[in-house]
Structures are given as structure tokens and as C-alpha cells.
Design goal:
This protein is an alpha+beta fold and about 80 residues long. The chain contains five helices and three strands. The longest helix has 12 residues.
Amino acid sequence: MAWQLQDAKNKFSKVVQQARTQGPQVVTVRGERAVVVLSAEDYDSLRAARPTLVDALLDGPRWDDDFAKAVTARVKTPSRDPAF
């Protein structure tokens, strides 16, 4: 269901109740969709399907053996500047 902002403000309890029982509720501002009110259950299911930043970083491209050896060798090489 779509709610105009003023109606959603005046009937917020009803908006929340319907989000919990009937699904997401759309709130419009000047006739344009502005926000969607979700039940906590719907929100949790959306978040669960999305990888975290850590998951995304860990699932990044794999290093081949030559590249891993080059990185390891570079780390073990002392810096030219003794200040580092």
C-alpha cells in the first residue's frame, strides 16, 4: 500500500501494523516514492541474503602462486630508506 507522508505521520501505528501483517508499505512525498517501511522480519531476510564487507573482501580474486611469492619477497626486502 502507498501512503502519503502526512497520512503516514498521522497513522504511523497503522503503517507499522500493516508492514508487519501485509508486507512493505510505501510512503510518498509529493506523489513520488520516498521510503518503504518494512517489518523487522522482512528487513532481516534482506540483510541475511547480502554478503558483509568482510565476506566480499575474502571472496575477492585469488592470488596465483607467482604473485603470492612476489608479494612475500617484497615484504621481506628491507626498505631503501633507513627511516622506515
